[in-house]
Structure formats: structure tokens, C-alpha cells
Write a structure and sequence with these properties.
Number of helices: 11
CATH architecture: Alpha-Beta Barrel
Radius of gyration: 17 Å
Mean pLDDT: 94
Oligomer: single chain
Distance between the termini: 31 Å
CATH topology: TIM Barrel
Number of domains: 1
Shape: globular
Largest sheet: 8 strands, parallel, barrel
Number of strands: 10
CATH superfamily: Aldolase class I
Length: 257
């Protein structure tokens, strides 16, 4: 088994190769807001709830690395958005593949928000990052987000996800469109594992579990829920509920070839 295969097994765990990722990489964008203002506290809660993967910046990882189980996947955020800047609409490259290898993480993550400008430059960087990480055996998670006015449109989600797949990303992170049948089309057209972003906390724990259940039923490999976890009154309980949903919900049979 190659190093890349071992890393992928930590990210996509169990017989159905599912992922319950808790992103805690919002600090550069939002600042030390409640929920992520105490890194060790929120990581301890997510670990206790049963998260099998974490998305972290280098500095956050340094503070909490001893709390993360050795069988959990660690994804390093390598593009960031500095929220204090007037030009923070798009994320920019911040961390290299060499740093990811030095930290011995299981994947790197880069985000691209279509419609915010700078896409050609960021796509060029994404291609270079995928090439560099491929030589180091490090999977790349590409967060591919549609334009703001079509943020949850299935055709635009599919197109954004397909761009990431075509560039060679190993896992795609994107939005759930809100409809199981439509999202099945996204899954079928992407051909690599897709994990669903959570977005802002809305509707409470019941809505969070419903979104996760429907996305996995449609064929998603799991979820990457950050604000839905760390903005919750009881993050550990939310993660525990998500674990039950993500690792037990059967995927529907695709209704097309």
C-alpha cells in the first residue's frame, strides 16, 4: 500500500469509505470568534463526538496536534482568506506542498470560489499544487464553489466539481443542492469522492443531520461541517449525531448509467 493510499484510508474510513470532517480553518477569515476561539476545546469536543478528519491551518494544527487520534485524517488548509483585507473575496495561496509533507498531513485543501475574480491564476496554482502533491503522495481536496448567484444550483455545482476533478483533485468539496436526485447527477459526473460543505449554521441540529443524511443518500462520501458544528451549543453532540448518519446511511442506487 502506498503512502497516498494510507492517507486516503484515514480520510475515507470504514467499509463504505466515508468521511466526517470538521473544518476549523475559519480563523483567518472570521477571526477568533466564539466556537473556534479556544482551539483545544473545540478539537476535544469533535474528537469525543467521533470526527474522523479535521481541516486545519498550520498554526491551528500546531496547537492541537497532540489531541488528534493517530487514525484520524488531518487535512491542511493551504489557501487562506484574510478577512481584514478589502481584497479578501478570494482565497490566496499561503502554504506549500513541502510544508504539508514536513507536517506529515493526510491531505491539503484549496478553495476556489467562482465569480469572485482571479480564477485563472488560482486554477493555474491548483494544477501546480496537484502535480507537486502527487509526487509527494499527498491527496488534494479541492473546494470548488459555484458563483454566488447560483451557489446551490445543481448544474453549477456539477460544473464546478467537474473542473476540480478534471484538474486531478483526489476529493471534491462542494455544496449540496438540496435535492437527492439532482445531487446524484453531480456525484455521477464528478467520478471522484465528493464531500459536502456545511455553510452557515441554520435550522439547528435537526437540519444539520437532515442535510448530511440526504447528501450521503445521494452518494456523497461524507460531509465537512464546520460552522454547523462549532457554532452549535453542544458541538460534541452534533458530531456524534453526524457520525451515526454519515457512517450508517445507505446510498441510493443511481437511476442512470
Amino acid at each position: 500500500m502506498t503512502g497516498k493510499q494510507r492517507r486516503m484510508q484515514r480520510l475515507l474510513a470504514g467499509p463504505n469509505r466515508r468521511c466526517l470532517m470538521v473544518p476549523l480553518d475559519h480563523g483567518p477569515w472570521l477571526g477568533p470568534v466564539a466556537g473556534i476561539d479556544r482551539p483545544r476545546r473545540i478539537v476535544a469536543a469533535a474528537v469525543a463526538g467521533g470526527a474522523n478528519a479535521f481541516l486545519l491551518t498550520p498554526g491551528f494544527l500546531r496547537e492541537v496536534s497532540d489531541l488528534i487520534p493517530t487514525d484520524a485524517g488531518i487535512c491542511l488548509r493551504v489557501s487562506v482568506s484574510a478577512g481584514l483585507s478589502d481584497e479578501a473575496r478570494q482565497e490566496v495561496p499561503a502554504v506549500t506542498a513541502v510544508t504539508a509533507a514536513r507536517l506529515d498531513v493526510d491531505a491539503v485543501a484549496v478553495s476556489l470560489f467562482f465569480g469572485r475574480g482571479g480564477e485563472p491564476y488560482l486554477l493555474q496554482w491548483l494544477g501546480k499544487l496537484i502535480e507537486e502533491c502527487g509526487g509527494l503522495g499527498i491527496p488534494v481536496i479541492a473546494e470548488m464553489m459555484p458563483p454566488p448567484d447560483k451557489f446551490y444550483a445543481p448544474e453549477q455545482i456539477a460544473h464546478a466539481a467537474r473542473i476540480g476533478m478534471e484538474f486531478g483533485a483526489d476529493i471534491i468539496k462542494t455544496n449540496y443542492c438540496g435535492n437527492i436526485e439532482s445531487f446524484q447527477e453531480v456525484i455521477a459526473a464528478t467520478t471522484v469522492p465528493v464531500i459536502v460543505a456545511g455553510g452557515p449554521s441554520a435550522g439547528g441540529a435537526d437540519n444539520t443531520l437532515e442535510v448530511a443524511r440526504d447528501a450521503v443518500a445521494a452518494g456523497a462520501a461524507g460531509v465537512a461541517f464546520g460552522r454547523r458544528v462549532w457554532q452549535a451549543p453542544d458541538p460534541e453532540s452534533v458530531v456524534r449525531g453526524l457520525r451515526d448518519v454519515v457512517f450508517s446511511t445507505p446510498a441510493h442506487e443511481l437511476s442512470f448509467a
